[in-house]
Design brief:
The structure holds two protein chains of two kinds.
Chain A (H helix, E strand, L loop, with lengths): L8 E4 L5 E6 L11 E5 L6 E4 L13 E6 L2 E6 L8 E9 L4 E4 L3 E5 L1
Chain B lengths: L2 E5 L3 E2 L5 E8 L8 E8 L6 E7 L4 E3 L7 E6 L4 E6 L8 E11 L3 E7 L3 E5 L2
Parallel strand pairs in B: 2-11
Antiparallel strand pairs in B: 1-3, 3-8, 4-5, 4-9, 5-6, 7-8, 9-10, 9-11
The chains are: A mainly beta, B mainly beta.
C-alpha cells in the first residue's frame, strides 16, 4: 500500500479536462513539494510537474499542478489520445527520511 | 544532454546478490546540485524508492530494505552502483536510476530517468 493515495483510474474524452488527485499527510505533502510523472506503457517515468506547479521546459501548458494542505492535484486540459498513460505523484516523507510515490493512476482517453 | 543508463543481470536466483550499475552522462556526479536515486517498479505496481547518493557520497536507503541495500558511486567513471543482497522473487521489478536535481526554490526533485532494466528473480 502506497504512502500517497491516488485513484487507480481516471478517464475523459478528447478535449475534456481531467484531474488526478494525490492524497498524503502532514509529514509528506503537507511539508514538502510534490512532483508528477507521466509513464507511457513500457517506458520510464517522465517529469511533468515539480515544486507542486512548475513545468519543465517542453511540457505543454495543458498540464498543471496544484497543492493544498496534504493533497495535490494534476490537471490535464484539452485531453488528447496521447495523454493515455499512467500518472504518478511523489514527494519526500519526513518520517521515513525517504521518497514516497503514489500508487499511480491509469488515464484512459475514451 | 543528460542520460542515465542501467545495466546488470536480467535474471538472478533467489538468495543471490544483485548488482546494478547506473552510468550517467551530461552531468557530473561531483556536482553538489546533483544526486542519483534508484527506484524500482514491480510489474503492474507502484514505483518504490530504494536509495540515493549525493555528490559528497552521503547516502540514504529505504528503511524497509535498509539492511539489504548498498549504494556507492565512482565519479571518475560516472557510475552509481546499487547492491541488493538476498534476492527474492518479490524483488522482480524494473529497476530505474534517476537524477535528483537541487534548486533553491524547489529543493530536490527527480528530473531525468534511465530507461530501466527488468530484473527477474527465479530459480
Amino acid at each position: 500500500q502506497s504512502v500517497l493515495t491516488q485513484p487507480p483510474s481516471a478517464s475523459g474524452t478528447p478535449g475534456q479536462r481531467v484531474t488526478i488527485s494525490c492524497s498524503g499527510s502532514s509529514s509528506n505533502i503537507g511539508s514538502n513539494s510534490v512532483s508528477w510523472f507521466l509513464q507511457l506503457p513500457g517506458t520510464a517515468p517522465k517529469l511533468l510537474i515539480y515544486r507542486n506547479n512548475q513545468r519543465p521546459s517542453g511540457v505543454p501548458d495543458r498540464f498543471s499542478g496544484s497543492k493544498s494542505g496534504t493533497s495535490a492535484s494534476l490537471a490535464i486540459s484539452g485531453l488528447r489520445s496521447e495523454d493515455e498513460a499512467d500518472y504518478h505523484c511523489a514527494t519526500w516523507e519526513d518520517s521515513l527520511s525517504g521518497w514516497v510515490f503514489g500508487g499511480g493512476t491509469k488515464l484512459t482517453v475514451l | 544532454q543528460v542520460t542515465l543508463k542501467e545495466s546488470g543481470p536480467v535474471l538472478v536466483k533467489p538468495t543471490e546478490t544483485l548488482t546494478l550499475t547506473c552510468t550517467v552522462s551530461g552531468f557530473s556526479l561531483s556536482s553538489a546540485r546533483m544526486a542519483v536515486s534508484w527506484i524500482r517498479q514491480p510489474p503492474g505496481k507502484a514505483l518504490e524508492w530504494l536509495a540515493h547518493i549525493f555528490s559528497n557520497a552521503e547516502y540514504s536507503h529505504s528503511t524497509s530494505l535498509n539492511s539489504r541495500l548498498t549504494i556507492s558511486k565512482d565519479a571518475s567513471k560516472s557510475q552509481v552502483v546499487l547492491t541488493m543482497i538476498n534476492m527474492d522473487p518479490v524483488d522482480t521489478a524494473t529497476y530505474y536510476c534517476a537524477r535528483m536535481f537541487w534548486d533553491y526554490s524547489s529543493g530536490w526533485f527527480f528530473d531525468y530517468w534511465g530507461q530501466g532494466t527488468l530484473v527477474t528473480v527465479s530459480s
